[in-house]
Design brief:
The chain is α/β, with parallel strands linked by helices and about 425 residues long. It has helices spanning about 5-20, 20-25, 35-50, 65-80, 90-95, 95-110, 120-140, 150-155, 160-165, 190-195, 210-220, 230-245, 250-260, 265-275, 285-295, 300-305, 310-325, 335-345, 355-365, 395-405, 410-415, and strands at about 55-60, 85-90, 140-150, 175-180, 200-205, 370-375, 390. The protein contains 21 helices and seven strands. The N and C termini lie far apart (about 65 Å).
Amino acid sequence: MGRENPAEKALCLLQSRLCDPSFIFRPLSDSSDSNYSKLKFIVSSSVTEACNNSILLLGPRGSGKVAVLELVLKDLLAEYPDMISVIKLSGLVHSDEICAFKEIARQLCVEHQLLFSKMASSDDNSQFMIAMLRECGLAHKTIIFVLDEFDLFAQGKQRLLYSLLDAMQSVTSQAVVIGVSCRMDADQLLEKRVRSRFSHRKLLFLPPSKEDIQRLMEHILSLPEDLSLPQDYVVEYNAKLQNVLTNEKFKEILNRFMNSDSTANHLFRFLFRAVCNMDLGTGFLTLENFEAAILNIQRQPKLECIKDCSILELYILVCMKRLETKEQNSYNFNAVMKEYKSIHDSFQTPDYYAHNVCLRAFEHLLQRELICFTDKKGQNQSLEFHPVKLLVSSYELHQGLKSYRSCPAILHKLMGG
């Protein structure tokens, strides 16, 4: 059997890294100002000082809330293996209080090697939870309750949240409640009796900055020199990677990516696509890999629609964009036709069509949802007089014209002017 291709080994390493949140988020935990450091300090203080605490982790989906929390829990369980017990619930599954108390009782029984009764009532499970909080407190053991989709627990009577936070008022209990939610107003959903028992600590998870993204990419995509890969291959790979990351075209790609969705999860999907595009023949990541990745990850249905437009339909779209550029906020088919005629008169374009042909093209754009009526009023109004607006951004129209094979040069000029 031939020797293993180093590029294949490198590819497996990169893919495994991108599937390992603890590896990905480790460089962002170095700073004392990071959410990792803040969360770890709050929870570890609760463990070592035998006090109760509650905190919310808030941020958009994909911003790394759960990944950072898991990293903190992993590190704390390694530091205090006999002083921590973790109970995890999800609002998507356990928002019903009967189901939630039952699941807490089940996990506590598994954690402490006790016999779980499936026949126990909700009140029995609630009392069991309170008793376990007291017993663990006396044994100097902290129970950490992780409530994912926290806002869903705030629906209805909020009995679970009240019971948990109320039990934590006891001097004998020792617990930490960590809520995770993508709703920034999650704490405002709490009832007065629950809110009065909540600590109101919040950690906000924002999309990573450009500097953080640069650090993350270098951390994830660079190959370590102590790996069982040929030294010359690792050196050449890392040098070529640096050339790509500092390339101006790559920075443009990164800006496009950040303008659409700059959350951490979206970044990792983007990098995974790029890594999977790597040519195993050369064994290096190239600019083309990242270009293909962003085209793949960013769905652009409007661009596809523009590619299927006729020349006349392109003229209509450009005319509408020009009217918007002139700050003409309200316009209709007749106004678009005036702009179309003025272009023809100024440039003597060969592409000039009859009124009824233009009207059919206009209707086609409405059907394709590249344009739409500004309101539903006056549905009986004649099509020529009904106000319309564009559903295509300037960037999408620019890109659509660029990728259109037989696009008249005048349209590029008109869009650039």
